[in-house]
Structures are given as structure tokens and as C-alpha cells.
Amino acid sequence: MKSINNFEDYYYSGANNQPANYEDINTFNTHPLNLEKVAGVYGWMFVGLLISGIVAFITYSTISTDMILNMLLFFIFFGIELALVYYLSEGKVIEMEYSRAVALFLIYSVINGITLSLIFIAYTLSSIAYTFFICAAVFGIMALYGSLTKANLTSAGSFLYMGLVSILIVSIFNAILKNPIIYWIETFVGVMIFLGLTAYDAQKIKVKIADYQGTDKVNNIAIYCALLLYLDFINLMLKLLRLFGKRKR
Length: 249
Description:
By secondary structure, the protein is mainly α.
């Protein structure tokens, strides 16, 4: 089925990952407005995931399999996604109108939903469903840990992003080699990395909201933060599908 077995490898596109100001991080939870903004970040992440899921299923249900598997179209959409992630990075998103940031995030969710329709071709619907719930559970646990821990996860973030680059390089080479041992090692390591990134980004989001608190850009940065969590969730689920998903063919 063309390169459907490795389509997961193309998805992670990190937005700006500059370290945040971690001063007074342990007193962050005492500020009710901060908590409201953080809750808004998770709300936007949920909206993005919901849109992508609906669009993915509609695309799978209405578009021919040959068109969905057309790799030229896939890479065109993927290129558009990379451009959108660039414009939703921290440095860009704070310079634009809030309504534009929201629109770009929603457009990204739609386009990513189109490319994610591949999973409905590759895996059974039931296995996608229970893998989603597994992903939601472990994602929630790690996000909660990142939000509540007193530890500074900055150094862990640097290590995790180095690991991410490493598995991306390995996956590209293994797309040619097709070595099953490398495939499964990269899968397990990938799960660990995205679990770690979820905790790291959850803490980073608190700090970013605090950094922009009281400015007219705090809502913009919430969209950027929602994209970080969205990417963590999607990539974690794609890795977990390798472990728990039941392939159709």
C-alpha cells in the first residue's frame, strides 16, 4: 500500500521551542486567571483534535482510496501543514491578529485531518477507537504531571528534542531498509519521547501563559500552545497505533 506503513514518520513538526522563563513556576497554580487561560489552551487543542478526527473520517468515507493514497497529494498537504506550523510558531503568532491565529489553527486541523484519513485505511475502526482512549489516558497523565510537578523540565526538553531528531533520522533511513527490529525500537523510543514531550510542553505552556499574562497577546500564545499539545497528542497516537492498532491488510 505504497508507503502507508511509514506515513506516521512525516507528522511531527515542532513549533518554536525556545525555553520559557521558569521563575516562580511553583506558584503558578495559585493564579485563577492563569488557570483559566491554560484551560483555554486545552480547549483549543480539543477543538483541533475533534475537527481533525471528523475531517479524517469524512475524507475516508467519501474520497476514493487511490486518491487518499496519492503520495503527491499527501506531500502537497504536508508542505502546507509545515507552512502553517511555521506561521503559528511563537515568534509569528504574537505578531498577528488573534482571529487570524485562530483561523490558521483551524485550517491546519482540517488539512491534517485530510492526511490523517490514511489511518482509517490502515487500521480497523475499533482498534483506532481503543487506541485513542489509551492515548487520551496516558496523555492526560503526563500533561497532569507536567502541570503539577515542582521539577524544572527544561533540561529534559533539550534531551527529548535531540531524541526526536534522532528517531526522525532513523525512521527515514528505515523507510528504505524496512528493518522490523529498527521499526519496533523506533516505535517504543518514539512513544517514550512523546510522553516526555507532553509533560515538558504542559509545563512550558503554564510558563508561556504567565510570560504573556496582562498583554494583548496572551490569547495568541494560547493558540501556539494548543498547537504544541495537538502535535504531541497526534504523534503519540500514531506511535501507539503501531503497538495497539489492528491493520486491515
